[in-house]
Amino acid sequence: MAPVEPPGGDSVQEPTDVKYYPSDEPVRLGLEHFNRGNYGIAQRYFKDGVEKSPKDVTAWIGLAASYDRIRRFDLADQAYAQAIRLGGETVQVLNDQGYSYMLRGNLSAARRKFEKAYSLDPGNPVIANNLELLNGSRRFIERPPNNQP
User: Assign residue 121 a region: left if phi > 0, alpha if psi is -120 to 50, beta otherwise?
Assistant: First the structure.
């Protein structure tokens, strides 16, 4: 799941913030590296972004998605929680959390998150694709209960 710039200006910082930085360079570089598949490097840039602009929802979502890709799900959960505190349970956060759960193999939790995101934006092709991917995954890994090694 590639982080996407939020429409509008979800990442607006107030000039009165103690650690206000007008540059979004860390987030821009984080997005660039994430989209290239350099998740460890992206994580470092997003982490720098949230340290410099702690109210930047895009930076938190990018950090969470990067943590997912380097399999640091414990840290991803913390970053998603912060993104939700700042911006609420948006379609993007719900979809990304669903993808996170799918990466972990927790398909039931993934389905719940994808379905909640889909209910908020039924025309979203990314969510529809992730539900289809989830359905395909389920076919390959479901086994009878007594099928133990």
Answer: beta
**Would you state the structure tokens that stand for residue 109, as one six-digit string?**
């939790």
Distance CA 142, CA 107 (A): 10
Instruction: DSSP letter for 54, please.
Output: T
Q: How far apart, in whole angstroms, are the C-alpha atoms of residue 136 and residue 62?
A: 26
- What residues contact 34, with CB distance under 8 A and at least 6 apart? 2, 3, 42, 46, 62, 65, 66, 69
Calpha distance 84→94 (Å, rounded): 9
| Residue 147 CB contacts under 8 Å (≥ 6 apart), including other chains | none
Using an 8 Å Cβ cutoff, are 126 and 118 in contact?
A: no
Tens digit of each residue's pLDDT (9 = 90 or more) over 63-89: 999 999 999 999 999 999 999 999 999
Tell me the DSSP string of 108-139: HHHHHHHHHHHHH-TT-HHHHHHHHHHHHHHH
Task: Give the pLDDT band of residue 9 (cuts 50, 70, 90).
Answer: very low
**Which tokens in the block code for residue 130?**
């992730």
